[in-house]
């Protein structure tokens, strides 16, 4: 296997993390809805926390994406 | 990958080309301590963003007794930011409103300008917030506010931020290091989140734009792919408009949370 194809495969593997972060973000909003529907009057006060959780989960996915892009666009090792 | 030769080569779009900072108005450039100082497309779009914010605010600050639609819009945004600060910092937070409001408006308008389809009239928008230097600077200013306020108000007691209440004595060194690390990572995570989110969305759209061009070139049955891609681009663009707003909100929210740490300790 030559190096440039290994690079592309590596980038693809790194992108798995984005999918994992998608699960995380879905979990954040899903759990929020689950709780919010049980007690709708308390839901509005928790929106800040919802978005903090979303931001934390999303950041990891974005880091995975950044790593994938760095691998994909790195100058091919000679 | 060779950048800068966007569409001409092989009928492909280089998705990274849109993030390139290029000097425009060549005559204005000068040399400062060995650094090229130029008026770039990034600077131009920052001006556009500032002018838009100015016009937006100007139109709604007429203080009419019966607010019109525009004034309602401006009051809505101000109330929104006020609310973020009120819930996360509390009564002491009033003095930070200008900075958080500036952050929110600048990021929101810069993100949205980057999504505007003005490319069809030949003006290609540049997303100011897709550069780490820009988001990094915003995050650095926020972080310096936290440090300055923290040490100004609490002196060395500010370090108690890194030791939560009720930590068992033998655990204190470990917890201190972990909390310190998570504190120092904050500006990077703040800057990285915004910049990568913007880059990711734009690359996604451009990759699918690439599909459209290539499948139209191929002709025949692959025209179906072109059609699907265009529909997909429309949906992703709509989603991106939402993400733009969420990212601006998250940046402002996290900044005010970090300022809360400095203002009120625990």
TrEMBL record, chain A:
Gene encoding the protein: atpE
Reversibly protonated during proton transport (site feature) positions: 58
Topology with respect to the bilayer: Multi-pass membrane protein
Keyword annotations: ATP synthesis, Cell membrane, CF(0), Hydrogen ion transport, Ion transport, Lipid-binding, Membrane, Transmembrane, Transmembrane helix, Transport
Location relative to the cell: Cell membrane; Membrane
Function (record text): F(1)F(0) ATP synthase produces ATP from ADP in the presence of a proton or sodium gradient. F-type ATPases consist of two structural domains, F(1) containing the extramembraneous catalytic core and F(0) containing the membrane proton channel, linked together by a central stalk and a peripheral stalk. During catalysis, ATP synthesis in the catalytic domain of F(1) is coupled via a rotary mechanism of the central stalk subunits to proton translocation.
Main location per the UniProt record: membrane
Any one of the GO CC terms: plasma membrane
Official protein name in the record: ATP synthase subunit c
Entry's family note: Belongs to the ATPase C chain family.
Molecular function per GO: lipid binding; proton-transporting ATP synthase activity, rotational mechanism
UniProt cross-references to Pfam families, sorted A to Z: ATP-synt_C
Organism domain of life: Bacteria
SUPFAM superfamilies: F1F0 ATP synthase subunit C
């Amino acid at each position: 296997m030559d190096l440039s194809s290994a690079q592309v495969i590596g980038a693809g593997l790194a992108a798995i993390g984005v999918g994992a972060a998608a699960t995380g973000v879905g979990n954040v909003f899903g759990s929020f809805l689950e709780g919010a529907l049980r007690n709708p009057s308390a839901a509005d006060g928790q929106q800040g926390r919802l978005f903090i959780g979303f931001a934390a989960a999303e950041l990891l996915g974005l880091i995975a994406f950044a790593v994938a892009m760095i691998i994909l666009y790195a100058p091919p090792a000679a | 990958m060779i950048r800068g030769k966007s569409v001409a080569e092989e009928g492909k779009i280089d998705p990274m080309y849109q993030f390139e900072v290029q000097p425009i108005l060549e005559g204005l450039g000068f040399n400062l301590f060995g650094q090229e100082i130029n008026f770039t497309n990034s600077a131009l779009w920052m001006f556009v963003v500032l002018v838009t914010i100015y016009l937006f605010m100007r139109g709604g600050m007429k203080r009419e007794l019966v607010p019109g639609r525009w004034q309602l819009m401006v009051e809505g945004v101000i109330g929104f930011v006020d609310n973020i600060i009120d819930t996360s910092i509390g009564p002491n937070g009033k003095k930070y409103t200008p900075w958080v409001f500036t952050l929110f408006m600048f990021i929101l308008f810069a993100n949205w300008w980057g999504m505007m389809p003005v490319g069809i009239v030949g003006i290609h928008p540049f997303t100011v917030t897709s550069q780490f230097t820009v988001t990094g600077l915003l995050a650095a200013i926020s972080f310096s506010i936290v440090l300055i306020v923290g040490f100004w108000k609490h002196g060395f007691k500010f370090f108690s931020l890194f030791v939560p209440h009720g930590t068992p004595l033998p655990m204190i060194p470990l917890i201190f290091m972990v909390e310190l690390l998570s504190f120092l990572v904050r500006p990077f995570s703040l800057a990285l989140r915004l910049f990568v989110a913007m880059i990711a969305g734009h690359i996604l759209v451009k990759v699918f734009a690439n599909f459209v061009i290539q499948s139209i070139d191929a002709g025949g049955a692959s025209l179906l792919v072109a059609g699907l891609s265009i529909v997909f681009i429309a949906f992703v663009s709509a989603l991106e408009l939402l993400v733009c707003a969420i990212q601006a909100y998250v940046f402002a929210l996290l900044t005010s949370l970090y300022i809360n740490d400095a203002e009120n300790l625990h």
